[in-house]
Each structure stands twice: as structure tokens, then as C-alpha cells.
Amino acid sequence: MAKSSPQKKAPVARKTQSSAAPGKKMSRDAFPKKTAEQKAAEKERKAKREAEKKAGQVQRWEEVLKVTGREEWMKLKGVELDVGRDRKKSKAQVKFDTVLPPHGVPMRRFKGVSANTKLNRRKMQKHIRHSERLNQGKVDKCLEWLRDFGTIQRDDLTVERLQKNPISVEEAHEISKELMHPSVPTLKTSVVVRGGDGRTLFAALSQHPKTYPKPTVEDVEDEGEPTVHNTNVNQRPKTYPKPTVEEVEDEGEPAVDKTDESKTDQLEMVEDGWSGKNTIKNGAEVLRHPGDAQSVMEYEEQLESGEVVIRSEPKQLHHGMEAWENRVLKKDPLQAAAELRCKTEEEFQETIKALWADDNGEDLITRYVKALYPEHFEDLEESADRGQWVKSHLPAGARMKSGVFLGKVTLYKLQTVLHKDNLDLLCVATCAGRFVGGEGIFADLGLKIEYKPGTLLIFRSSELWHMVAPWRPLRKMPGDKLPPGRISRVYTSHKRVIERLRRRGWKKDIIKGR
To answer: Compositional bias (Basic and acidic residues) spans (predicted)?
Structure first.
């Protein structure tokens, strides 16, 4: 019987991404290499997309200036622009060596201590405990007021809905323009917005009178109803219910809380903690601050002689991130931002002395985050404990416990357009300086907030569209201690960083130190 010839095996098809076993890594050989032409075309497409994004942001900013009526308002008037101008320092490319505070511990901690008294560890710890008690008292009082008067319930919004069905940037822009119109009132008191799932979406912590001012009998009997800008952007305008005559004639006057010490603390937090020498580079940050990349902030200064001159200083940005993920090489270990590590040990020491002088403010922030966002507090606290390392380079016992965030970003004299921070879990923002304008605009919530020095904003920056309305610096007068213009401090931790620091084996996934 003839022996049958062996059958040839059919060629095995090369595995593709779709045919690979689930969870199995694909080798680099499974993907064809890109040619030089393909790489060049991809680079060109990316540059085109970035240019379109930037053009869109610039156009939206110009529309905002027009609708707010601040296009001319922001310009310097009545001053000869060539008088007193130092053209050399008007170039953003010039290096500015900022002289940082020489102190080793926050000086405001010892306001009640005589300059002739020797400060020891025991006195510092006593003052720290006292500051912690004061902060908790502020938080308790504010939360009580928010429960009674300052809560907005948005049953139509949830965190999941904001994530899965967000409004577009075009929709958010149109709503923001409506909110910034001069006819729309600005909310000046503390407020918290809760979604339909019971979770906090946004909180603005500012002034909070113990009760709302009572309307007069004339207000009640007046024809027509007071129209306000509704916080629900899907149903507006809406009117608040009119009070009854009985409510008006009830005895008692509103008592206003005048002990707002947190304003001073937060103002000093930003002023003491400013450290930046970096102008804005091209990239993602340019999209948030169009027009600021290669520009300076000009302001008027009145000399003691009465002469008014024009000064200028660069607009800057500083990332004080103790741990963040490399955006290109995402598998690399987490590491501090280069701006925080600095080029020399001396510069690093002076930088952290300034940036970490905000511990009193951070302690207050931590207490608010724990109360308002309890579902995220444990994750933030654990990742902060594992990722923070700068505190080991500071004098022992001189500062309060570090907060729950890994990043301190300082925006120096920048205008900020509509955007989301997709990497952030939560965002805490405050500001300082001498300026007018600069309201906080939150399109998803239909809110226009008075965002001035002392105001603390805590919100979900990756889900909510937000921006700062145009502002301009006030004239610098003789004896002014605060600088003209707006300085902003943002505290945050990136979601990916938190996730990586909470894994098993996290110690191998972070490089601490310089």
C-alpha cells in the first residue's frame, strides 16, 4: 500500500491586536513600523490640531472681553506709556532671579511672640495646636452656615452624568458669556452645590453672614418679583419666592460674621509661598492662558512725587509637584517636577522654605476636603502620605502636618480661559494680590462667584468647565504691601498618581527627592 505524503501545515496567521489573548501584551513586532513620511504627516496633523485649539481659545477669549465690556477697561489709560518703562525688563525671555524669603519657618506663626523671645520647639508646637483649633472652629462655623443658608441642590446633575454626558466647550462658552454679562449678579457668599447622587460638586468658601438680610415691607408690597440668574442652566430665568409681610415684620436683625481670619491666612499663604521663575512655554498650558506665553503684565505705579509710571513684569507659572507621571514615558517611576527639584541645592532649599510656608492654609483646606468630599479623602490622604517627601528637608516641628495634595501650582499674573483639568481628582484654588474683576465662572452649574483674596474654591475640576473672568491690576500706591495683579495658588493631585501610589509595591514606583 502506497504511503501517503504528509500534509503541509497551513501558514499561521500573524496575531493582531484583536486576535491576541485578552490581557496579554503585544510585542512590538506585531505592529508595522511607521515610515519617515508617516511620522512627518502625524506630526503635521498634531501641530494643526494644536493650532486650531489655540485659535479657538483665543477667539473665545476675545468674545469674552467684548461681552463683559472689559476690552477697553483692561487697558492702561491717561498715562504716557513711554514714561518710566524699562523695555529691557519687558521681555519675557529675560531671566528674573526672584529673591525668596530668608526665613526657615513661617513668620506669621509667631505673630503673638515678642521679637526678643527665643522661639523653642515647645512654643512652636503650642502655637501649632492653637492654630489647628482655630481652623476647626472656622470649618464648623462655615459648614453650619452652609447647611442652613448656602446649599444649592442640583438633582439634575451627578458626577457620573458630568463624566459620561458632558456639555461641549462651545456650549460651556455660550453659557459663560451669559454669566459674565454685567447684568448677571455675582454670588458673594459661601455656597456648596450638591448633585442628585448626594455628592459635593462645588464649594466656594468666602463671606457668610449668619442670616440673610431681611427685606423691607416695601420690598414685599412692591409689584413684580425680583429676577435672579438661576443656578440651573437648563431652566432660566427663575424667581425666588417673595417673603410674606409677617416674615418682614418679624423682629431681629441679621448678624454678620466679621471674624473672617481665614482671609488673612490664605492671603499670606499665597504671598509667602510664591516662588517662580518660569515663563509659560508652548504646550498645553498655552491653551489655558492664550496671549500670556510671550507677554508681560503692565501696571501703573504712582510715585511719592505723584508721578505715574508704567512698570512691567513677566507672567509666570510654577509647578510645585512632589509626584507626577511622565506624560510620554508613563511607565517610568513617579517623580517630582523639575521646577520643584531646582538646579542647585541652595535654590531648592529657598524654594521649599517659601512654598511650604502655607501649612496653616493647607491644614484648613484638609479639614474642608474631609468634610465636603469624604469619599475621596482616604485616597488623597494615603497617596499624600506615600508621595510627600519635601517635609523631610524642613526644620522638624516647625510646621503643621502636610496637607492631602501632592501638587502646589502657582499662577503669577495670568488670565485663565475656559477649560477642564482632566488629570485632577479635585482642585482647591485661592488667590491674592490687588486687582479688579476675576470672577469665578462655572458653566455647568450656572454660577458666577466673587473670587477675591480669601475665597477658597474646592471643586471637581476634571468634570466642571471653569474659568476666571478678565481682571486688571490696580494702580500701585506708595506704601502698598500687596503686589498689583492677581496671584493664584492651586492644590491638586492627579488621578493616575493617586492610583499608582495606592497599589501594592508602590515604593518601587516613585523616586523621592531631587
So the answer is: 26-60
Q: Which residues contact 75 (CB under 8 A, 6 or more apart)?
A: none
* pLDDT at site 34: 80
Instruction: Pull the grid cell for residue 1.
Output: 500500500
DSSP 113-157: S-TTSPP-HHHHHHHHHHHHHHHHHHHHHHHHHHHHT-EEEETT-
Of 442 and 236, more confident: 442
Q: What's the Cα-to-Cα distance from 29 to each of 18, 25, 26, 32, rounded to whole Å?
A: 15, 12, 8, 7
Secondary structure of the chain: what % helix, strand, coil (to 5)? 35, 20, 45
Max distance between CA atoms of the chain, in angstroms, equals 121
Specify the 3-state DSSP secondary structure of 77: coil
CA 499 to chain centre: 21
Q: What is the mean pLDDT of residues 353-365?
A: 87
Stretch 60-86: mean pLDDT: 66
pLDDT grade, residue 288 (50/70/90)?
confident
Q: State pLDDT tens for residues 86-95.
A: 433 433 333 3
Residues facing 431 on adjacent strands? 488
Whether the CB-CB separation of 260 and 207 falls below 8 Å is answered with yes
Residue carrying C-alpha cell 455628592: 199
DSSP labels for 245-278?
Answer: HHHHHSS--PPP----HHHHHHHHHHHHT-----
Residue with cell 474659568: 467
Q: What is the 3-state secondary structure (H, E, C) of 279-319?
A: ECCCCHHHHHCCCCCCCEEEEEEECCCCCEEEEEEECEEEE
Least confident of 226-240, 260-274, 345-359: 226-240
Cβ-proximal residues to 350 (8 Å cutoff; 6+ apart), any chain: 100, 102, 275
Give the three-state DSSP class for 382. Answer: helix
Beta bridge partners of 459: 202, 427
Residue 55 has pLDDT above 90, yes or no: no
The owner of cell 486688571 is 472
Q: Are strands 510-511 and 334-335 parallel, antiparallel or unpaired?
A: parallel
Task: Using the CB atoms, write b or e for 349-362: b if 16+ within 10 Å.
Answer: ebbbbbbbbbbbbb
Residue appearing with cell numbers 459620561:
164
Q: What does the pLDDT look like over 212-232, one tens digit per residue?
A: 554 444 443 443 433 333 333
pTM of the model: 0.76
Q: What is the pLDDT of residue 227?
A: 31
129-137, Cβ contacts within 8 angstroms, sequence gap of 24 or more: 131/360, 131/363, 131/400, 132/363, 132/400, 134/261, 135/360, 135/363, 135/364, 135/367, 136/367
With the CA atoms of 365, 424, 154 and 185 taken in that order, what torsion angle do they form, in degrees rounded to the nearest 10? Answer: 70
How far is CA 432 from each of CA 110, 149, 187, 472, 497, rounded to the nearest angstrom? Answer: 22, 27, 19, 13, 29
d(CA 497, CA 501): 6
More confident residue, 218 or 236: 218
Residues 6+ apart with CB under 8 A from 144: none
Boundaries of every domain in the chain: 50-111+119-213+254-511
